[in-house]
Amino acid sequence: MLNSNLPEPELLKTILQPLLEDFQYWFGRSRHLLETEQIAFLDEQQQFDLLERVKQAQQEVNSAQILFKVTGGQVGIDMAVMMPWHQLLTECWKVGMRFRSEQSHK
Q1: CB under 8 Å to 84, separation ≥6 — which residues?
Q2: pLDDT in tens, the chain (106 residues)
Q3: Would you put residue 25 in left (φ > 0), alpha (ψ -120 to 50) or beta?
Q4: Taking the model in full, what pTM does it have?
Q5: Side-chain-facing half-sphere of 69: CA atoms under 13 Å
Q6: Domain layout of the chain by residue ranges
Q7: Which of 27, 51, 68, 76 shows the greatest Cβ crowding within 10 Å of its Cβ?
Q8: Hey, what's the torsion of the CAs at 52, 80, 68, 12, to 10 degrees?
């Protein structure tokens, strides 16, 4: 459990920094899959569009990480900004799970 007595910047560093790192990790995995595999259940345009959305989200997360770092962890990120990242990751996870499931049945 988190210590609720942590000063706000420390609380942000404890929660936000690892969350941003997780977003980068999972977007990186998704990007790798979309760049290196042909996803049979997506047409070429759908795969391209999903990849472009992942690249855009990676840039946004990178910008948030830079801002967080240069301010010494003094800024947070609005949930309205993070929700689309979470939704995109959920979409990517579903694509990845289906892709791996179909690959295992070949």
Answers
A1: 57
A2: 344 455 577 888 889 999 999 999 999 999 999 999 999 999 999 999 999 999 999 999 999 999 999 988 888 889 999 999 999 999 999 999 999 999 998 7
A3: alpha
A4: 0.89
A5: 9
A6: 9-35+43-104
A7: 27
A8: -130
